[in-house]
Amino acid sequence: MANQVADPVLLQIVRALLSIDRKVVRVVALVSFVTMLFVAWKTSWTLVFVLVACVGMLLFASYLAKWVLAKDEGTPDMTFVSDAIRDGAEGFFATQYGAIGKMAFLLAGVIYVVYMFRQITPDQEMAGLTKMSMAGITCMSFLLGSLCSGIAGYTGMWVSVRANVRVAGAARRSAREALQIALRAGGFSALIVVGMAVLGISILFSVFCLYFTLGSSGSFTINDVPLLLVGYGFGASFVALFAQLGGGIYTKAADVGADLVGKIEQEIPEDDPRNPAVIADLVGDNVGDCAARGADLFESIGAEIISAMILGGTMARKAGIQDPRGFILFPLVVHTLDLIVSAAGIMSVRGTSWPSSAKSAMDDPYDVLKGGYNISVFLATAGFFVTTRYMLFVPSAPQAWMHFMGCGLVGIVTAYMFVLITQYYTDHKYRPVRMVAEASSTGHGTNIIAGVSLGMEATCLPVLTISAAIVSAYWLGHTSGLTDTGGKACGGLFGTAVATMGMLSTAAYVLTMDVFGPIADNAGGIVEMSDQPESVREITDELDAVGNTTKATTKGYAIGSAALASFLLFSAYMDEVSSFTSTPFTQVDIAIPEVFVGGLLGSMLVYLFSAWACMAVGKSAQEVVNEVRRQFIERPGIMTHREKPDYARCVSIVAESALREMIKPGVLAVSAPCAIGVVFRVIGKKSEIPLLGAKVVASMLMFATVSGILLALFLNTSGGAWDNAKKYVETGAHGGKGSEAHKASITGDTVGDPFKDTAGPSLHVLIKMLATITLVMAPLFLD
């Protein structure tokens, strides 16, 4: 199957890298590490700590991988299914990222040309920077961000396609052991993703500091270095967007096609080996939920770190802080601690087993996972206290660090609230999901109405939580005592940045719980296809249901952090415009008709993008439905197990369709902000309205962010609720499997699939990518 979809050139490169002698790899790695330490030491001892801790946690991640891979793979039938899933996933990944890589190089060329004709800031010009050097720096940062994002996505998929069969094998012995294996496999992916994000930015920052700050006698200072990192964030966003789109289209097209024909028309169970689309469905869990989510969280953390560093440097300059390194490097230290506290949370989940039936409330798998999360939160809070005291203490404002500690607590509480709110709306233990399941008993239409209304209602509490977090953090920072030369308070925006860091201070553990979901789902499919006893399937079904909740929790967490990070990126964009024009750019007046139109275009962009994403799933699913129907008609022996389905054909159809359909919404997201900014810049020049292009783009960002947050919350929550309502019915409620309520719940789940796994998660990336692309292309919009 892999040969039908794999990119030969990319696979040859991967094989060549894997064939290098391990001794050579170790020597190169050691030399590279020592070089990085030297560069970091020339900048700050804090960076030395960050690099050492990151490398240490990457080594710990490799230990987790070895621990997981040492577990047995179960029966030969299990291994056969797992091999087919791995071949399909790795083949699609190679083709998809080969296409993304080509687009990234093309866009890097466009960025280089744009930067050759753009202006540079006065500070950059006085420091001796030229247009050519800025073009080279931005292109290099963009490509490095793209590469690291791709690696982050691949690690998420690499472990999931190898851990799934081991979780299935462990489920024959103990539910708790199966949970522990799935969690540690997810932990490997999460630690690699966060570690790569911190490591990449740290290295890039150290190199730029060494080259520009220490080697230059101009006015370019360490405060200005973070602005050079925006290309890295844009590269991460670019790859994450196409990874999420392609993976989301793949996984949901296969899932919808398999469910509509298999469950409803043929009335066979989920993951039944007679379903020709079942392997494509299981492959989709890996390329959509694991690889794409890894790239998504990598991009979230990267964007948050870079924007917080920019705001930290800007505030330090305004406040006249002599040594601004504490404020600039604070985000890197927080996420380094994130690796450590999340590792502690992962290791706190032990492998002691529950009985395979009659599990007590104490042994609820979600409670076990949340217990590890609670440990991570507690340690993160303690780490925040120490870090703020030693890095953000300012003699001129001795109480400032306490205010920023309060901002961090606001972020941590916000993250925890998002976990609780999402669990309430998507876990079948609570009223909302049971309401959707009950609506299924009266038909397909009432199921859809219940799910849509639940999704709309579910936007309320998260928005109130985000609003309270932004206002609280801003005022805590504003009253910190830090003032500019005119006596005006200047710590408000940095307070929101610290709150965002607090929210993402346990990101690695949250991503661990997310990757746990598709691994458990795959394990259930392997158990079903290898004809294991019902008791084993009960365990994997329980883990799968919990996995649906953890995936929904991560999506809620991601959109919450995206909202805060987008606010930071928006502020960083306004700071950048001010730097280029040497005039304050602090307000956007939407009473100006053109600026208001920019806001409308931003909102429209969000809905058009989502429509094209859902439409892509629908078109691809139609092809799968037609193929599955054809095989059932032409091969009647499939239903009696006398003929085998052609799994490879469905894998090939979904892969080709996903790669084709991801282009249109992706190009829209990349090109729209540039087109809007340039068009209104020209209009502003003709009508003599200064900075109209920059103002319209700022309005577009504001409206797109607000619309994107609300729409993503609606899509993610309604889709997750529909999915778990189906799971609840399958436990025996309202007639159980095969009942009319079950068929109606399948319809709701089918409608929710592109909501929660394609359009919704893609919006997390979209609203941040709009901000990063405007940061990179800002000079295009200026007069």
Outline:
Helix content is 80%, strand content 0%.
Low-confidence stretches: 1-8, 353-362
**What is the mean predicted local confidence, pLDDT?**
85
Rg of Cα set = 25 Å
Q: Write the H/E string, N to C.
A: HHHHHHHHHHHHHHHHHHHHHHHH
Bin the strand percentage: under 5%
Helix and strand content put the structural class at mainly alpha
Task: Tell me what you see in this structure.
It is a single chain. 62% of the residues are buried. The protein is an all-alpha fold and 783 residues long. Mean pLDDT is 85; it is low at 1-8 and 353-362. The chain is globular. It has helices at 2-5, 8-18, 22-43, 45-69, 76-116, 122-126, 131-171, 175-213, 230-265, 278-319, 325-347, 365-391, 400-426, 431-440, 444-457, 460-478, 492-503, 507-529, 534-581, 593-634, 647-661, 663-687, 692-730, 740-777. The protein is built from 24 helices and no strands. Helix 5 crosses helix 10 (278-319), helix 7 (131-171) runs parallel beside helix 9 and helix 9 (230-265) packs antiparallel against helix 10.
Index terms:
mainly alpha; 24 helices; 80% helix; disordered N terminus; 783 residues
Provide the fold topology.
Blueprint (H helix, E strand, L loop, with lengths): L1 H4 L2 H11 L3 H22 L1 H25 L6 H41 L5 H5 L4 H41 L3 H39 L16 H36 L12 H42 L5 H23 L17 H27 L8 H27 L4 H10 L3 H14 L2 H19 L13 H12 L3 H23 L4 H48 L11 H42 L12 H15 L1 H25 L4 H39 L9 H38 L6
Helix pairs in contact: 3-4, 3-8, 4-8, 4-11, 5-7, 5-9, 5-10, 5-21, 7-8, 7-9, 7-10, 7-18, 8-10, 8-11, 8-18, 9-10, 9-20, 9-21, 9-22, 9-24, 10-11, 10-17, 10-18, 10-19, 10-21, 10-24, 11-12, 11-18, 12-13, 13-16, 13-17, 13-19, 14-15, 14-23, 14-24, 15-23, 15-24, 16-17, 17-19, 18-19, ...
